[in-house]
């Protein structure tokens, strides 16, 4: 799949994999840590700072672990990765594009409210 196809595929199914209140809350907290980790990683590479590289990688890995815990609370588990490249692309695209879009478009709040007031 191309990056464009992955983004479309992720977006089309995103809401159905993010319905649990616990998962939504963990994502809204953890994804910003991943984004900060990416920014720190870029800065640390330019500054050749090994401690900053370690901190940035820890932030990103910790964020993914927390989100994995959140996904375990979902009734519908995420689609399995088809390989290492697919895993890396899907994770990075979700963190830097799909989840922020989910929040900005109001879909996170809509999903969260539906956990408070189920139909």
TrEMBL record:
The chain crosses the membrane at residues 24-46. Keywords: Membrane, Transmembrane, Transmembrane helix. The keyword Membrane applies. This is Terminase. The lineage of its organism: Bacteria, Pseudomonadati, Pseudomonadota, Gammaproteobacteria, Alteromonadales.
């Amino acid at each position: 799949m191309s990056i464009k196809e992955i983004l479309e595929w992720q977006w089309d199914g995103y809401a159905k994999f993010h319905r649990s209140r616990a998962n939504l809350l963990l994502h809204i907290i953890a994804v910003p840590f991943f984004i900060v980790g990416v920014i720190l990683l870029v800065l640390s590479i330019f500054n050749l700072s090994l401690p900053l590289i370690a901190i940035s990688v820890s932030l990103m890995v910790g964020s993914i672990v927390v989100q994995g815990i959140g996904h375990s609370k979902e009734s519908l588990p995420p689609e399995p990765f088809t390989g290492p490249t697919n895993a890396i692309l899907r994770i990075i695209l979700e963190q830097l594009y799909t989840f922020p879009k989910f929040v900005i478009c109001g879909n996170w709040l809509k999903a969260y409210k539906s956990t408070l007031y189920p139909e």
